[in-house]
Amino acid sequence: MALIVQKYGGTSVGDVERIENVAEKVISARDAGHDIVVVVSAMSGETNRLITLANQISERPDPREMDVLVSTGEQVTIALLSMALNKRGYPARSYTGGQVHIRTDNAHNKARIMDIDETKVRKDLDAGRVVVVAGFQGVDEQGNITTLGRGGSDTTAVALAAALKADECQIYTDVDGVYTTDPRVVPTARRLERITFEEMLEMASLGSKVLQIRSVEFAGKYNVPLRVLSSFEDGPGTLISYEEQTMEQPVISGIAFNRDEAKLTIQGVPDQPGVAYNILGPVSAANIEVDMIIQNVGADGTTDFTFTVHRNDFQKAITILEQISKDLGAREVNGDESIVKISLVGVGMRSHAGVASTMFEALSKEGINIRMISTSEIKISVVVDEKYLELGVRALHGAFNLEQASGK
Amino acid sequence: MALIVQKYGGTSVGDVERIENVAEKVISARDAGHDIVVVVSAMSGETNRLITLANQISERPDPREMDVLVSTGEQVTIALLSMALNKRGYPARSYTGGQVHIRTDNAHNKARIMDIDETKVRKDLDAGRVVVVAGFQGVDEQGNITTLGRGGSDTTAVALAAALKADECQIYTDVDGVYTTDPRVVPTARRLERITFEEMLEMASLGSKVLQIRSVEFAGKYNVPLRVLSSFEDGPGTLISYEEQTMEQPVISGIAFNRDEAKLTIQGVPDQPGVAYNILGPVSAANIEVDMIIQNVGADGTTDFTFTVHRNDFQKAITILEQISKDLGAREVNGDESIVKISLVGVGMRSHAGVASTMFEALSKEGINIRMISTSEIKISVVVDEKYLELGVRALHGAFNLEQASGK
């Protein structure tokens, strides 16, 4: 008998029929002898409906009141799911974030969980009840309702699992697991049985939308095994956990890509200490997040500095960079919005050499020019022209044999 | 500077535009120098939408979860109204029933308020804020969300006014006050400037739907002056308070009527001690509420027993009565569903004789046959044929000169 926290997102509870379907899934786990805590999001569309109401009143509604408003979305779902369970003879109790003391800081609309008092939940579990908790919300020290921001329901589930020392935190979504890459790009992409927290973090930060980064970080920090499964079909999903010594690691777990990047270059900057700060300081002061950074020093004592930003920030960044260029006496500024980033992710890279050269070879065979390269311990990213995205991902998927199940 | 609790019902906050209108009304009172606590209901239609969702899952949804569900309705309104006030530069804070500790018993769906901790509200008022509280809801001792049942928002407002020792509790509705009788029946019906708690209670229990009976009882018990006003037009409304010695009382304040009654008679019951109990015991055991009761003893040692019930309970009551008739050896049972009750209400009756005879005379002049009569200290009710309702009410309205303002 295990203690399992299950989380169902907005699509999984999108209408009454789907909520009944979730009730059946909960009951299957209950009948298998497990203690179950369920975390649910608002029914899909509900949060947007509420935001629309608020925006009819004000373009910038009071953040405290915004949280009071949107937190009703999950409250509706917990009540309906508990009704569905009770109707089927499975005693269930719903709780808002405030009722189970999900204590957060007071950053309305994007609060962070500080602490959970799990005694109430534990008591209900001991009494044989299913506990249904509203995701995405909590209360600050003064008892004000807060929300964790979009996607926060995953974080609620993981935080509850950590507080309860649950055996597993299961995130039900509309996909049946984490794939080697996006199956829409590579039809032979394969569901992974397992993946490590580190790999999942890289995948998530590189644009794979299966899980929220914060919830993966949280799960890793408290060592809560996470499982991604489908709400709509049965299957084991993908387990995200720490690397086990006995686990035979494949070199590469997956290929992530990101279409939202844009590249900026400032050329011929007089090379002197502090040049990176002089360039990136004003960019970050404008709240623009910088992803990859490359600096090359030329023979003429000047340097070329290239970095990528989110495509939405491109115009703003170019304007800032042109001012900087003048201030620093650089030669010129140019940018490119039609680029993408492709990344190989795998903890196996740590112990395997030659990953980079296999990657570069595969891309070169297809005539794909690499514009930027950046590496970390378990990831190699390249920037290429947008038009090469599908070709590049497929070439790499084949080169590393990802369509074949390996030790994972 | 006074402390005023204002309550706006579902129609008054039916859409965003109306919520903005309520914000303007609150601001007028604030600008006049008053401290304001606002109690709001769910936007009209919202509670029904939520109940429909629940009924899609279960015909008899779990009562605890029903309260979790429907209490979101008011939570949406408090957030939107607070946003509208904040946008206009009037600091406001919303609170759910739980957040301001509106403690109730644990009778889900029809809970009663036990206690309110007003310290949080007081602190906000002292800080110059408008406090916006969700009506109709509270929490029990264990922190479970409860609701007071339909119309409970009036009770919330009165209870808050009592706890805060407010100078006045203003109930905003879609009518501009309490009338001498229903203006749809008597076009010359007149808005009353004042009415006493006792009169209002009689009017409400007789079918005048302006205020919920429980809120009037509550206001009377804690001596909270109540005022009924219109959300949609300006005007002083009707003040409901205790009778003042200096107030010159008219004999009659108003005429209430009730179309929902049905009459049952059991004839020729052998007259013996306990006959009333033998008849009404089984009726009340079947959860049927009995209104008027009349018993006549005939010369032949048998008695006729007549009473009225809600028209919805008529068939059930007839069936029970036929069984009783057999058991007691009565002669026959008959009933009439096409009757109505008309009542004169007025504290002035206490000191004025002759009200009943004026009433009977007015009805008789119109050829209206009285089927039953029942009196209390401040009320005379008669049962007449349904078809005479309008004629009877108009005749009485004229006979007591209600279209002319008197001392009130």
Give a verbal description of the structure.
The structure is a homodimer of 408-residue chains. Chain A is of the alpha/beta class. An 8-stranded mixed β-sheet of chain A has the order 3-6-2-1-9-11-12-10, with helices on both faces. The first copy, chain A, has a 4-stranded antiparallel β-sheet with strand order 13-18-20-19, with helices on both faces. Chain A has 11 helices and 20 strands. In chain A, β7 and β8 (145-147) form a beta hairpin. Chain A has 2 domains: 3-244, Carbamate kinase (3-Layer(aba) Sandwich), CATH 3.40.1160.10; 249-400, 2-Layer Sandwich (VC0802-like). Chain A has helices spanning 16-31, 46-57, 63-87, 119-126, 152-164, 197-205, 213-221, 275-285, 314-328, 355-365, 389-399; strands spanning 3-8, 35-40, 92-95, 102-104, 113-116, 130-134, 137-139, 145-147, 168-173, 194-196, 226-230, 238-241, 254-258, 261-270, 290-297, 302-310, 332-336, 339-345, 370-376, 379-385. The longest helix of chain A is centred in the N-terminal third of the chain and has 25 residues, at 63-87. The mean pLDDT of chain A is 91. The first copy, chain A, is globular and about 75 Å long. The interface between A and B is medium-sized, with 35 and 35 residues.
Give a brief outline of the structure.
The structure is a homodimer of 408-residue chains. The first copy, chain A, is of the alpha/beta class and 408 residues long.
Mean pLDDT of chain A: 91
What proportion strand of chain A?
25-35%
Structural class of chain A: alpha/beta
Low-confidence stretches of chain A: none
Task: List key phrases describing it.
Carbamate kinase, 34% helix, eight-stranded mixed β-sheet, 408 residues, 11 helices, 20 strands, homodimer, VC0802-like, alpha/beta
